[in-house]
Model the fold of this input.
Amino acid sequence: MISSRFWLLSAFLLCLPAAARQATSTGFNRPPAGVDEALRARVQQFYDLEQQGRFRLAEQMVCEDSRDRYYDMEKRRWTSFELIQISYEENFTRARVAAALGTEMATLTGAIPVKAPITTLWRLENNTWCRYFPDPQKEGYRTPFGIMKPSQPGSSSQGGNPMQTVGHMPRTAEDVMAMFEVSRSLVTLPGKGGTEEVELQNRMASGLSVTIHPPLIDGFEAAVSPQTIPANGKAVLRLVYRPKEGNAPPPRAVVRLIAEPIGAEKIIEVNFTR
Done:
């Protein structure tokens, strides 16, 4: 079972500023017709059952070789379910489903409502999607910050944490924000039109999905390629200004970037020359 320390960190991350989420399927290749719809319906049905506390019925939607692990795990009656993102793998026969699940977290002043970020694994068996659980002793728990594995008997565990992690586990909000970086925060574009690029860096052990909030300026465009930055990878933010003849640009503009699932925000200020 994942330690309470990790659970609290997950809840803490959801309290960080984040843009409104919209469920999307990532990747350059779109799934074949019917695949995405079938998985979304299956995931919705699974969490509907968990919200109702009907865990025996939900168990029937778990892959057969994972049912013992599902039976043994702690279960919660989630108060809400929000599908955030689907990432397909292995020729669309496996998928990672990121969701925000409503629950409560105990504090010194009482329970408070939170949304916990959880990624579940699904695979296609006999043309039906089922949820599966990897063996944590062999594969560990995949988190946005790396693979967490149970400490081996007799090994030393820092701070008494029974989990070992590959990579850097952030401990503060500043650590989390630093996992998404931009090469510069100030860009200058010619008032007559032009193009500039900003490099984006993902320092996490999993992908980051970048959402752009551009200014409402005629002729101004902003795009990130790729939109999902791979683990420890880079992307390029391309800023383009093509004003209509006779239109004068504003003195400045602001482009907001939100990296999910950690909610890290970066601001790019754009100045226009005249």
About this structure: The longest strand covers residues 110-125.
